[in-house]
Amino acid sequence: MLNLLQLILMVLALIPHEAIAQPPPPYTSFFAPLHKHTDALNPLYSVQIMTAYTNMQFTHSNFLIDIDAPLTWHDCIVQWNMYQGRCPDNTICTSPVSCDEYQCTDVRASYSYKNPYCPKVKNTTTFEGYCTCSVNVVNPINGPCSQVLLNYDTFFVNTSNGRNPLPGFYAAFSNAACAPSSLFESFPENVTGVLAFSSSPYAFPISLNQPPLKRIFSFCFPSTTSTPGILFYGNGPYYLFPNNIDVKKFLSYTPLLKHPDSFGYFIGVNSIVIKTRSIDIPGNVTTKLSTIEPYTTLRTDIYNRVVRRFSMVTKRLAPANPIAPFGLCFSTFANGTKINLKVPDIELILRDGKKWAISTANSMLQITQDVACLAFVDGGDTMEYLIVIGTLQFEDNFLLFDLENSNFGFRSSLLRKKTSCANFNFTMGSG
CA-to-CA distance for 431 and 420, rounded, in angstroms? Predict the structure, then answer.
């Protein structure tokens, strides 16, 4: 007769290996610090990740966050013979994708740019006789299209329990591309790459797909250059001090929408409400989310109605001459004393009835010592999207992209919860 132990062993032998419960990892998310830069033409935001491990230490690199880019690319070189000592000093070396590998064909076929300045991609042969895989990328800052070399890349991100960093890290294996240093001259100082966070099959989130973490990433853009915000990938929780609140509990959700020929993210906005007066948005159009555009941009007809209504509800404020690119500005001095402007919320009424309130901190921008402007921009009569929500409106908000359920999580300014995006505790915790 079988004893109990033998019976258990026989049952376990019949269970597929995958079905045996594994202990959950100590972390609930991957994370990276997120920085604001003001030394380029417009404010931009980067995330810092680890790109190489040499001489017993990681190399940290800053990547521009782009939720439209189909592919990650950065300052590196490809080398066919990767052996010790071959990579030049202060250079990131990666393995190339050959022109006859399926990844080359697949990446080229997965996206195409309408930009007429994009050259036709073609294979090139190195001096040693190797065939490289060229792909096109577009500079998100000033638009030029360039050819770069597809590679096999490895990036490293830290782990977190949602409260603190944990000692471990995660290696993300990805196809990316190497670009020459000259392509980053228009970027902020020390930013040497573009990290693709789009819905493309070759975007960075695909390489972070590590069960049991869910396919969710979150941005918390800081409003200052002195202290970083935070990027999370994973289930949460997401705690911010001083009150140690899990901001995920305060989010509202609306569906993420698709748009033809775009890997970007869109939501539905039915109307814009300013102090109970509604400005309707034409139906069946989508609102684009952008991590590159600095301010929310509206088609001219919508912009004019927003500015007209905003002017009416702020008549008590002293007007100032407009400062480009803004069309409505106010004096922040009264009787020789500096004042803090307080204006009504601008409410985006979403298709499912949810409301995204844009408060003073995200609608007004201090331009000079004595002038602040409504940080919405006229995009002209022919702009492709009626509304593009820019990064000033993201600052000190918590934005969640749930790729599993195609939902977008948001809330009004964290300042109303007495916290901010600069309030993640970067002190190492225990696993």
Answer: 26
User: pLDDT of 220-268, one tens digit each?
Assistant: 999 999 999 999 999 999 999 998 899 999 999 999 999 888 999 999 9
- Do 413 and 396 contact (CB within 8 A), yes or no? yes
Measured distance CA(269)–CA(256) in Å, rounded: 11
The C-alpha atoms of residue 401 and residue 60 are separated, in whole angstroms, by 25
Residue 303 pLDDT > 60: yes
Q: What single letter denotes the amino acid at residue 276?
A: T
Beta strands, E only, 241-354: 245-246, 252-255, 266-267, 269-274, 277-280, 287-289, 296-298, 319-320, 329-331, 333-334, 337-338, 346-350
H or E, element range at 196: strand 191-196
Q: What is the CA radius of gyration of the chain?
A: 24
Going along 259-396, which residue ranges are E strands?
266-267, 269-274, 277-280, 287-289, 296-298, 319-320, 329-331, 333-334, 337-338, 346-350, 355-358, 364-368, 371-374, 376-378, 387-389
Contact 281, 275 (CB under 8 A): no
Q: Return the pLDDT at 83.
A: 67
Closest among 170, 233, 169 to 197, alpha carbons compared: 233
Alpha carbons 112 and 135: distance in angstroms, whole number: 10
Q: How far from chain centre, in Å, is Cα 372? A: 27
Nearest to 98 by CA among 128, 133, 123, 136: 133
The residue among 32, 14, 314, 374 whose CA lies nearest residue 197 is 32
pTM over 0.70: yes
> How long, in residues, is the chain?
431
Is residue 325 reached through a cis peptide bond, with omega within 30 degrees of 0 on the bond before it? yes
Is 402 in contact with 219 (CB distance < 8 Å)? no
pLDDT in tens, 51-68: 987 777 888 999 999 999
The SS3 assignment for 81 reads coil
Q: Which residue(s) pair with 234 in the sheet?
A: 29
- What is the sign of the dihedral through the CA atoms of 134, 140, 145 and 146? negative
Strand-pairing partners, residue 364, are 374
